[in-house]
Specification:
Elements: H1 21-29, H2 37-54, H3 59-77, H4 85-104, H5 111-130, H6 133-148
């Protein structure tokens, strides 16, 4: 008879090693628009908005727009464009109703929803021109924490 011993798996995961601390600090102080990823972010966001406008949006495009608006709201809560919070909230509400309606059939945007989403995307673009990489990372961490703590409004309502 053969006996096998099963060991408990450890939850320990070693952290990565940062090889150049000064480069990391300098990169966090750079403006987002000075980094090549800024153009990629804007292109991805506007491509998703254009696909939505044309009526061909899928869940992928909706997720991109949700991510952009979540970051815009997190940046506004941290003081970057905080005077635009009501407009960002209106766009979030419009996106929520659009996404809930689209789950049943297709993601078709109404004119008032598109107007609110376009304004929110313009706000987000202006924020990206004004923030540093560190501020953007902090906003992304805020969004992740909000989702982790289940404080975000879900698209699919649970019964």
């Amino acid at each position: 008879m053969e006996v096998t011993v099963v060991r408990k798996q450890s939850k320990y995961k070693p952290k990565g090693v940062r090889l150049d601390n000064m480069a990391w600090v300098r990169s966090s102080l750079m403006r987002v628009e000075d980094v090549s990823a800024s153009a990629t972010i804007k292109i991805r966001n506007h491509d998703a908005m254009n696909t939505l406008r044309l009526g061909n949006a899928t869940k992928v495009e909706i997720d991109v727009i949700i991510g952009a608006l979540n970051i815009a709201e997190a940046l506004a809560r941290r003081g970057v464009g905080s005077d635009w919070l009501p407009e960002l909230r209106a766009a979030q509400d419009a996106l929520l109703t659009l996404a809930r309606r689209g789950l049943k059939s297709r993601f078709i945007v109404r004119a008032d929803e598109l107007t609110a989403l376009n304004l929110a995307m313009e706000i987000h673009d202006a924020q990206l021109e004004a923030v540093t990489v560190k501020q953007l990372e902090t906003a992304m961490n805020d969004v992740t924490e909000t989702v982790r703590l289940k404080k975000a409004r879900p698209i699919v309502e649970t019964v």
